[in-house]
Please model this.
Amino acid sequence: MSVIKVENLTHIYSRGTPFEVTSLRGLSLEIRRGEFYALVGAAGSGKTTLAQHFNGILAPAGGSVRVCGIDVSNRKLSRELWRKVGLVFQQPEQQLFEETVFDDVAFGPRNLGLSKAEVVERVVDALRLVGLDPDRVGNMSPFRLSGGTRRKAAIAGVLALRPEVLVLDEPTAGLDPLGRRQLMDSIEYLRVERGITVVLVTHSMEEVARRAGRVAVLHKGRLAMEATPREIFSKAGELRDLGLDVPATVRLMLGLQAGGKPVRADMLTVSEAAEEIARLNSEYFKAKTSLLF
Model:
């Protein structure tokens, strides 16, 4: 069952002016409820523009977008849509504005008219999900936090709304490797345990390989490819023509292939690549041993 349905979507910036730019051109796709869906593409491909249609920040110039059964062009239903779709912008820490971290994360739940106890429960839960201790940071000013911690606090503010769909636009940019892994593990936990749909806009092919169930590749506002990560990354040449790369593990296996080694190239994770190399070494050892006897 699709939770997001995009049909022949066209979006035009500065329409009717000398600066008019068509960002999306007749794009169609569907995202199923509960899946982890990645949007990738070179700069200017339309990824962020598409993502901002999912909670009604942008409205289609042509075609339609329905999310959780709501037509995003229907401004009368905007508030309902915002309750169902959480959008984490690039550099979300710039959205922080309250005096304390607690109040910033609580802003959305309070505006839903929830009880004080429910607001507190949601704030504590959201902060813990992003790896922050509510007792330690709750009363701190968000502007005294490190850049990475501010990013996590801003994301917690979106998670506190408990959306059905979570749209993340480069959420781990600026975080260290441990912070990136912890944050994305939390997002995956939400998807699996609470059934939310995750849409990830990213340049990190490693993250796509590790997390996504399906991937959409955008190019100049159109849908160039859509498939599983394994299928997408098997087309390394086509991706490079679109200005994209493949995960480091795939590059490694392709390099071994180019050197004449009989390995599969569609290894998406380090553990998969290690197993394939171990298999190759084992077969090489057996072949060498057989020559001795």
The chain has two domains: 2-229, 247-293. The two ends are 60 Å apart (CA to CA).
